[in-house]
Design a protein that fits this description.
alpha+beta; 3-stranded antiparallel beta sheet; 2 domains; 10 strands; 5-stranded mixed beta sheet; Cytochrome Bc1 Complex, Chain A, domain 1; about 400 residues; single chain
Length: about 400
């Protein structure tokens, strides 16, 4: 976990892609994958992401549980050792990362950045964040910029790797069956040998007030317009997070929500319309697909439904359906290791670790008054419309 900023976003995002190529002992992907196949088809991979204003550099191994092996092999510890060597003893050439590995993954990262433009709904949300937070780290894409990727050299990447090991805040998650003590000791010994005296403080700055509302219109060759709104809440503390989550669920987080029932179904102003809460940053996004000619009506009705929420104009059934929906989402966290990892990562970043069962119980106890109080602090900050080119453009 590293502070997200424009200068280092691309090189940090490139690191896990290059590290997954192998280790000193298994110096290329062919050798590494051969060993992984011997370990019942285990898999090592990496990715970059962000939560709030924290850039996440992730490397992980998926493997069979020891209790399912045919001969009682310790697959977990073997895979942990492989992952440890990929992170701490990677495949190098002349004291730096291999140029061919770096060039391959630079192209892959550039393609990943390009893909954001191809997926227009995702692109619209990214552009809203850039326009809403031009002077905040939150506005920085977790993959960085193509022009920054082009300038990365094997030596620069090697130096970024050394800096990451010594300075990044690190969290290790072991999900599934198996004894954790040996795995914990393996990584503790590796990190402990580095002299990590200057670990970066990866935090997120929460802006509690919205300024003058900004409206941005961008035109691209699209057939369906995307309307995305960014709103400030100032609600990053656990004190009112449960109430805020419930408020956003009532507004647009479920098929019974006000946005779905009114803006989409009753008034037919959009193809989809939903809201979600970014807890770490304390912001709300309202995401919709519309016909451009319905822009003014859709914008007005979305804000009207927000005002209705603030005024407490929602039924007991609205509360009940939203609570049950959130309760169900917490219940489903344990259905996959991926969702379990994502959940506990969020808990770790919030500083208050609750089990999914505890989170579900807390949601069920939220009162109507708490929801109205939380909703009253939601303020519109930025409106972004991605629309099609006009005739002749």
């Amino acid at each position: 976990m590293l502070p997200l900023n424009r200068e280092t976003a691309s090189i940090n995002a490139l690191l896990p892609l290059v590290l997954r190529h192998g280790s000193r002992e298994l110096p290329d992907m062919t050798a590494l994958n051969r060993r992984l196949k011997e370990l019942y088809g285990a898999r090592i991979d990496g990715s970059a992401g962000k939560r709030g204003e924290i850039q996440l550099v992730t490397l992980y191994c998926e493997n069979l549980g020891d209790n399912y092996t045919l001969g009682g092999e310790q697959v977990l510890l073997s895979c942990a050792g492989l992952l440890n060597s990929v992170i701490f003893d990677p495949a190098l050439e002349n004291g730096s990362f291999k140029p061919q590995d770096v060039e391959i993954e630079k192209r892959n990262l550039e393609d990943q950045i390009d893909s954001l433009l191809n997926e227009k709904r995702q692109y619209a949300t990214m552009r809203l964040k850039e326009e809403m937070c031009p002077n905040e780290a939150y506005g920085v894409c977790e993959f960085g910029r193509k022009e920054d990727v082009k300038g990365i050299t094997p030596q620069k990447l090697f130096e970024a790797w050394q800096s990451m090991l010594k300075n990044a805040r690190t969290e290790i998650f072991l999900l599934g069956p198996g004894e954790s003590q040996q795995v914990e000791k393996l990584f503790a010994d590796s990190f402990g040998s580095l002299g990590r005296d200057n670990v970066a403080e990866a935090t997120t700055r929460v802006i509690k007030e919205a300024g003058e509302v900004k409206t941005i219109v961008e035109r691209l060759p699209v057939t369906q317009a995307k309307l995305v709104m960014g709103l400030r809440t100032g609600a990053a503390s656990p004190d009112n997070t449960d109430a805020m989550q419930l408020a956003i669920a009532i507004l647009g987080g479920t098929p019974h929500s006000k946005l779905f029932a009114n803006v989409r179904e009753k008034m037919s102003l959009c193809y989809y319309c939903m809201s979600y809460f970014e807890r770490q940053k304390g912001v709300v996004f309202i995401d919709s697909g519309i016909e451009e000619q319905n822009y003014e009506k859709a914008r007005a009705e979305i804000l009207h439904q927000l005002d209705e929420l603030k005024a407490g104009n929602f039924s007991d059934d609205d509360m009940r359906f939203a609570k049950l929906s959130l309760q169900n989402s917490f219940t489903q966290v344990g259905d996959s290791l991926d969702s379990l990892g994502i959940y506990y990562l969020g808990q770790t970043l919030s500083g208050e670790i609750r089990t999914p069962e505890q989170a579900a119980e807390a949601i069920m106890s939220v009162t109507r008054e708490a929801v109205i109080s939380a909703a009253s602090g939601i303020l519109l900050d930025t409106v972004y419309l991605l629309a099609g080119n006009k005739e002749g453009e």
